[in-house]
Fold this sequence. Notes:
- Pfam families: BPD_transp_1.
- The chain has helices spanning about 1-15, 15-40, 45-50, 50-85, 90-100, 105-115, 120-145, 150-155, 160-190, 195-200, 205-215, 220-255, 270-295, 305, 320-355, 360-375, 380-390, 405-425, 430-440, 445-470, 475-480, 490-495, 500-530, and strands spanning about 295, 300.
- It is mainly alpha-helical and about 550 residues long.
- The protein starts with a helix and ends in a 10-residue tail after the last helix.
Amino acid sequence: MARVAARLAGGTALAGLPIVFLTVFFAWPVVAIVRLGFTNGGVTSTLAEAQTWELAGFTVAQAAASTLVALVAGMPVAFLLARVRLRVVGVVRTFLLVPFVLPTVVVGLAFKALWPGGGVGAIVLANAFFNVAVVARTVGGLWAHLDRRGEDAARALGASPWRAFRSVTLPALMPAVASSAAVVFLFCATSFGVVLMLGGARYRTLETEIYVRTVDLLDLSGAAALSLVQLGAVIAALVIGAVARRRRETAARLRARAETARRPEGGEWWVVLAAFGVLALLLVPIGALLVRSLSTRDGWGLDGYRALAGFGERGALNVTGWDAALNSLRTASDATVLAVAVGVLAAVALVALRRSRERGARAAGEVLDAALMLPLGVSAVTVGFGYLITLGALPGDLRTSPLLVPFAQALVIIPLVIRMVLPVLRSVDERLRQAAATLGAGPVRVWREVDLPLAARSLAAAAAFGYVVALGEFGATSFLARPDAPTLPVAIGALMSRPGEVNSQMAYAACTLLMLVTALVATVIDRLRSPHAQVGEF
């Protein structure tokens, strides 16, 4: 009983800092924006407008279409990762991370190079491009643990390969399919940079409309109303995702032994070919971006890369392109350090609460876990504008501090760090901790001697993953970054909003550099990843 009480007290204490951070830098700004909207009395009228629900309908429709495309494209790749023994599978696993962690501004420009007019089709394909990895790695993680004997028995009784998959394998995979679909829908519904670049003035989602009403129209009550609609959809998606994730984890535990991959047989080669076809299509936007960055009026050249040493055409930037890149590196470093510190504490607290025998402690852990995921789905513009309203009340007035952008970026990274570290910490054998405690080690030493060595690789991968996400963050940063200290994604957005061939060349060159850095970091992440943690599982 004393040990249980100590664990509960320790979990509560560790949860203190993440709770304070979430309260100050998320709940407070969001509540302030919503309260301001109600104070002005515009929420009711905005919710009554037909345009509001047209925006909501388009947001849901494009997210649903993107999710469907990602599911259809991701399933063959999941089969390749889970069931096929080929030398290139390791390369495929690493490559899949690249689209997932590419900055939204990079993907937006890549599809703009392919689809200059933009539109609904471009938006759907771009969002699906991001999320094929979520489906492939989430579904593939469970598929690798499915017992083949049920499917083999169905084939022996005369079922075709498709019927055996439909009647035996697919029902067993549904927890992972539902979990990945909920996450993909959430990401697509809150997509900002892609819709802003490809939708133009004609196609807007709730996320981009919140930005327009806040920044351009100063319609705070209207933006608050739209934030409420978006928040309701996000909470629903998170609940569905949490339920599906628990079912997937239960299914994986019931099938603890992974099946050995083998070479494809018969009709399985068609699935493998489909998977490689999807991978080839994922290369097309990346190749288009690289080609566009080297294209000039006079043919091929490095004019865009050389122009990064300047301020752009007609003073598009207040700093040089390379200065913006250095700002990105510094800001991403600060955000990563903060996010890893808070995220690891939160993960340790969640493990302690979930291992408790007290039902209330386990319930508190579930609530805290869900709360820590909320920043992924709430409008970055809402949070950013909330910062400007609320953080002036804190000592030092963070609104003028260079730490303002790292705080906003860390808010997005923390849920990702938790999702990468938490499964590893939960997999640590409790008997190791108990043995260390029996030998006289205190809680801190137990963590240092037992948990930290086992989780070190995942911690390093989480830090690298958080860094590359912060490096390309565009939503909140575009609103909070000062004109004299923009990050590279913000500078790219500014360049694309100004006419001029030099500005366009600089933007594509900067996007290509971001893409190359992202690819390098994605390779490092995959080399460091733990078998218990899958990037893309939320």
